[in-house]
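step=predict obj=General stress protein FMN-binding split barrel domain-containing protein n=249
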Amino acid sequence: MPHVPKVRLLLVPIRRSKLPSFRNPFASAVTQHFQARSICATARLSMPEQLYSKEVESETDPSVSKQYDHDTPKDQQWKELYEMIDGKKISILSTYRGGVGPVGRSMAVAKRAGPDILYLANKHSRKFSDLEKNKEVQITFQDNKTQDWISITGTATTTSNDDPRIKELYSPTISAWFGDLKDGVHDGTWKDPRMTLIEIQSKYIVYWKKETSALGFMKEVGVAALTGGVAQTGVQREFSEEDIKQERV
């Protein structure tokens, strides 16, 4: 066989300063990718221990269980609920109508009495015929800005016009919803026999309160989407019938 001379290659390192200037158009995208990965690695969100499919239920499913607040003291939970109700005033009162189902209408809260809600209303409205057949109602509140919401399930009691609380809760602006029929009786004042009181005694309350800023909200949702975690932008709290009874005491 012919002799093949050995060839040695000398690799000389090139200084960075000698490299031609080159700007990678994808540099920012790559940087953002690694920044996102960094956020994911250091995010406080974490999934629970690995679950098998047969173990995923209401008690263990993180998308359900993670939302409920079991840490905040009950008195603080009540305080924040009352602040939310008092700050909104306008609610949706839903009654149940035979052959139809739930029927809701916007109602101004006349007064919050602890965990219970009072409304002034016209006894000729259809909600009273609904309540004659079914006393169960639902009250909901929602803040369009924060998406905070409240849902109250309760039992309605209606009174006649001689309830002294009607005079206490009445204000002249309420007459605009009744009108003066010019008969000396139906004048839209607190003496108007049409004006009655609906009192809702709560038996179950659940509410959700946002606890992140706009930036925090985006981070929670973004990180959860990238990592497979569950975003937690607020807390959900609930009060049982027993909790409500104790609050009334």
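step=describe
DSSP finds seven helices and eight strands in the chain.
step=end
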